[in-house]
Amino acid sequence: MPNNIKRISLKEQKIDLFEALEKEKIDILIYNYEDRSIEKLSKLNKTKVIFYNHSSFLYWIYQRHLYNFKDTVYNLYRNCKYVISIIPVENDYLFKKWGINSILMDNPVTFDYNSVVPSDLSSKNIIMIGRGNDPVKRYNLGIKAMEYIVKEIPECQMKIVSSKNIYLQKLIANLNLKENIKFTGYQENVEIYLKNASLHILPSLSESYSQVLGEAKIFGIPSILCGLDHLTLAKGGTIIIYDDNPHTLSKEAIKILKNDEYRKKLGRQARESMKKNNNKLIAERWIKLLRLVYKGDEKIYQKLTTDKIKDEEAEKILNNQLKLLQLRNPRFKHVTFENFIYYSFS
Question: Would you list the domain boundaries of the chain?
Answer without folding.
Answer: 13-108+280-342, 113-272
